Amino acid sequence: MTQLAGGEPEVRQVWKMARNCAISPSQFFMFYCLLVVVSFATAGLCAAFGAPAVLPFAGVELLVVGALFLLYARHAADYDLIELSSGCLLIERSDGARFQRFELNAHWTRIRLQSAWNPKIEIRCAGQCVLVGSHVPAHRRALIVGELRRSLRNAEIAPLRDAVAGHAPVSYGK
Amino acid sequence: MSDVLSGTSTGHHAGHDVPTGWRRWVFATNHKDIGTLYLIFAITNLMVGGVMALLIRAELFEPGLQIMRPEFFNQLVTEHGLIMIFGAIMPAFVGFGNWMIPLQIGASDMAFARMNNLSFWLLPMSSVLLLGSFWVPGGAPAAGWTMYAPLSTQMGPGMDLSIFAVHIAGASSIMGAINIIVTVLNMRAPGMTLMKIPMFAWTWLITAFLLIAVMPVLAGAVTMVLFDRHFGTSFFNAAGGGDPVMYQHIFWFFGHPEVYIMILPGFGMISQVIPAFSRKPLFGYASMVYATASIAILSFMVWAHHMFVTGMPVTAQLFFMYATMTIAVPTGVKVFNWVATMWRGSLTFETPMLFAIGFIFVFLIGGLSGITLAMAPLNIALHGTYYIVAHFHYVMVAGSLFSIFAGWYYWAPKWTGYLYNEVRGKIHFWGSMIFFNVAFFPMHFLGLAGMPRRYADYPAQFTDFNQIATIGAFGFGLMQVYFLFWVALPTYSGKGRQRATPKPWDGAQGLEWTLPSPAPFHSFETPPQVE
Q1: Which of the residues A89, B27, B403, B434 could staple to B266 if both were Cys, CB 3.0 to 4.6 A apart?
Q2: ipTM confidence
Q3: For the residues of B304-357, what is the DSSP string, one character each?
């Protein structure tokens, strides 16, 4: 749990769903460059000594490798972040170059798992629908839905509980 | 070796669907399923290639035998080589990589799961083309697995099928290599720096790099053969101004790194097994990594030692001779590190360890005969003889295959959830070890005496050693049948077998042993934290 400074609403719980990425984009790019240098040096040598057919194969191969590396690297840092604070559900989605941020009223939010094949977690609030959970295995999403629902329920009764316990009630206003 | 600090996700089957039936296998995207498919494919090809080897040895049992036509003998020699390399050894290592790399680095799966499926399913097509070439006019190619021009430019349509088969197998290898590179580089568990990843994953990372570097060379070479055959070019046709020797240069520029592609993952497996049964960490982990990388780099500089007899300047001979000998240095580092790991260790000799020690012994013999062959003057005398056959079988069978067996016995409890039968495992090891040496050691003498390879017949003075070799080969083949039906299949079926604990080997280290046995369908959904 994170306490925000400056009188901002207290963050009760954070879910971050992201892929594990063990290498920085620059390191990954350097590795690709190394592959390109070695492969083209090899192919160039072959071409120089009378085997030109190696060069197009090396080119096609490196294009495929590069495309796949790019495909992976573009989404390596993707994440879905769900932050539950007093009365507010903040959702951040990073998907390649796209970044989206939604602030939903936690009291009006409904969470469910889609019934489709490879279902996403559907978070609906006041006509808005946000789909998250693509970075966790499909079979774990149901667990996360349950956890989110429980946390939302607890967040609703928390002000009452805090008042009984003598704590200052948490503001739910947006 | 990496230690688990916290947050290990052991995975589970509950609450989700595990695909069943034929769809599970045809549309497999789970790394464990694809790993199993690769291993099934590899053992099937091992048996097919093994039957070819036994037919070859049967023909050579006595001089004057005519079990088959000499052309068919040469077709068998060619297909045996291609099937064992592209159908058995390489897929077996990719199978091990698929199974173990995600488990060893704490990843939930391979980076490109669907591409993983495609890269596997290309392989059966490749094998169908290879084997199908026996049934086309003119039969299978008979130019040897190297498909040297001008033989390869003159043969029947079987050669075209083999060229396409090699292309397809190469595409599959490239896809597998990309997957392994991205998985190892990107999906390591938090805290697992590059110098903490297990040696098997390291060796596969370097092997994948080699594959990507050299596969276009093979593709280029065989495409040029195809062009010479059908499109009127003369790359390798001397009559048209081409140069057949150039094919050899190009082929071996691929071929020698290919030799290391087929042994480096084996080194990695041996580096996992020996510390586990010595109950000591691997001696000189960093030097092992650097030695593996050195071998990979040097493998690009030695190709012409396969071609000393084609005629080359003395300076070139000297360069390739010394460069080849230099490879003995990092290889020696590895062997000394394995021995140093065992030194004063608390050794036990379960089957994986027996195969690992056996590997060192026989691989050393293969390595030493390699040093002999590296010397240009000796190479010229021994070129094309059975000494070469002995050398590369000591490296490829006793090296690669024994390491595969060491790896299988080591990780089978993790895959199947059952302990294999130790007595049968030991019978398999000792039988294989003895029969392998009976089959291949006499070939050194045959080669030294001048018996040429790839001939269906021979003069009478070579009879005794050939008969010993044939008996050894049949014994070796039977031991692999014994392994399949009396060791492997009972372990997979689990009938009467003892259940394996998550860590059946008390000295084993690594993330894979934090998972239950058998490893669950989904594992490490939350990456573990590594210290």
Answers
A1: B403
A2: 0.79
A3: GGG-GGG---HHHHHHHHHHHHHTHHHHHHHHHHHHHHHTT------HHHHHHH
